[in-house]
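Lecture notes, unit on protein representations.

Consider one protein chain, 150 amino acids long.
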Amino acid sequence: MTSMPAAERLGSYLKRTEQALSATKHAALKPAGLTVPQYAALLLLSENPGMSAAALARGCAVTPPTMNTVLKNLQERGLVERTPHAWHGNVLETRLTERGREVMADADARAIRVERALAAEFTPAERETLIALLGRCADVLEAVRPDAGA
């Protein structure tokens, strides 16, 4: 087996960056009373009213049981409402309430400040390059992922 020094392992840099982003967004969203997964769900719902819990789970990259817990908490706080789909009665559509839109606006302003601070560290050309490089990272990792059935 070939060894690889830790300093050469790109995954550790990606993980550190992801953890720093998550912790910073968590701290930014705390005054709005939201967790990062709750904010992600509200953001998706603000752009796609009526999404199902399954679609939200996929969009937020969490498991369906996790999304159901997120939605239950948001519904108990009066931030979302869930109603049966017009044609598929067993599917619940989720929409922001007026209060949910207010909380989302506050939380989104806080999250945008984090995103703008991050973006400001790079020139426009560097941002384009970073986005392209991260996209390539995701593509290669998806391509080399071992089959679940193997």
